[in-house]
């Protein structure tokens, strides 16, 4: 599937009504999921807790327990989920446009496998950062960055260009190499507990997210949204190929490097905190294109909202479906994303 194939799609509905509907749905969803969990909190109390914490109202009409559950435990997790969903969806949309490949996403470039190798290295040898519990997250992010560096080193030609096909093949090669290294670490040095920890981490989870993590992820998401929206017109030029983009004055090499590396680093930041979560960056841009068409000024903001909405509900399902245990959020996104991807492939096969 290539970008030109997308040009046949036309907007089904306007971008502004769709954006308003998604933003409203996301806000209502946040209020709803903040009340969902082992201890249920009514939506009215959720609104009171948040409004009082933001100094919008006075008084103490809500109990201390509800206040702590909503503000200290669930709100950081929900904000982190929304931020991660938005970042992964935008990263996927940008990479698909730059590489003119609808199957490209942040993890196709080996970021997921590189992060897993870094995390396993930290778990196996008990690496910490100044005695804190941040060792696994930092090692995962470093692994993702190293993997990205290897991909770029393998794919870059002497002229400095990044051919799309070679970039994807380099990503596959680095992913295989990282996977082999991870398996070797577990088999040679890892214990049964390490293998269990690695399996849990590689499926993604927001269970360990705290306020400081949420603040970092929200800041990353806002930065990514602003930068990507500023490049929307340039990405439209890439939809017709590098030659067409160059003919309208786009510095193809510089823009490709900046956006590709920036998107990969943003995805690596999310992996370092919550682990690799698949299918969001791959599926969400497709769904949004079906509704509003391929134009990036419409596609990008709606993809961010859709990714945030999907991840908020996926994490809510992960923490509430099983009463006595938490399901990895990557399992939930795979259960949702795999059928959607199959349907998209079938649709593309019928129309091509």
From TrEMBL:
<dbReference type="GO" id="GO:0033214">
    <property type="term" value="P:siderophore-iron import into cell"/>
</dbReference>
<comment type="similarity">
    <text>Belongs to the binding-protein-dependent transport system permease family. FecCD subfamily.</text>
</comment>
<feature type="transmembrane region" description="Helical">
    <location>
        <begin position="168"/>
        <end position="189"/>
    </location>
</feature>
<protein>
    <submittedName>
        <fullName>Iron chelate uptake ABC transporter family permease subunit</fullName>
    </submittedName>
</protein>
<dbReference type="GO" id="GO:0005886">
    <property type="term" value="C:plasma membrane"/>
</dbReference>
<keyword id="KW-0813">Transport</keyword>
<dbReference type="Pfam" id="PF01032">
    <property type="entry name" value="FecCD"/>
</dbReference>
<feature type="transmembrane region" description="Helical">
    <location>
        <begin position="214"/>
        <end position="235"/>
    </location>
</feature>
<dbReference type="InterPro" id="IPR000522">
    <property type="entry name" value="ABC_transptr_permease_BtuC"/>
</dbReference>
<keyword id="KW-1133">Transmembrane helix</keyword>
<feature type="transmembrane region" description="Helical">
    <location>
        <begin position="78"/>
        <end position="95"/>
    </location>
</feature>
<keyword id="KW-0472">Membrane</keyword>
<dbReference type="InterPro" id="IPR037294">
    <property type="entry name" value="ABC_BtuC-like"/>
</dbReference>
<feature type="transmembrane region" description="Helical">
    <location>
        <begin position="134"/>
        <end position="156"/>
    </location>
</feature>
<keyword id="KW-1003">Cell membrane</keyword>
<feature type="transmembrane region" description="Helical">
    <location>
        <begin position="20"/>
        <end position="43"/>
    </location>
</feature>
<dbReference type="GO" id="GO:0022857">
    <property type="term" value="F:transmembrane transporter activity"/>
</dbReference>
<feature type="transmembrane region" description="Helical">
    <location>
        <begin position="327"/>
        <end position="345"/>
    </location>
</feature>
<keyword id="KW-0812">Transmembrane</keyword>
<feature type="transmembrane region" description="Helical">
    <location>
        <begin position="255"/>
        <end position="288"/>
    </location>
</feature>
<feature type="transmembrane region" description="Helical">
    <location>
        <begin position="107"/>
        <end position="127"/>
    </location>
</feature>
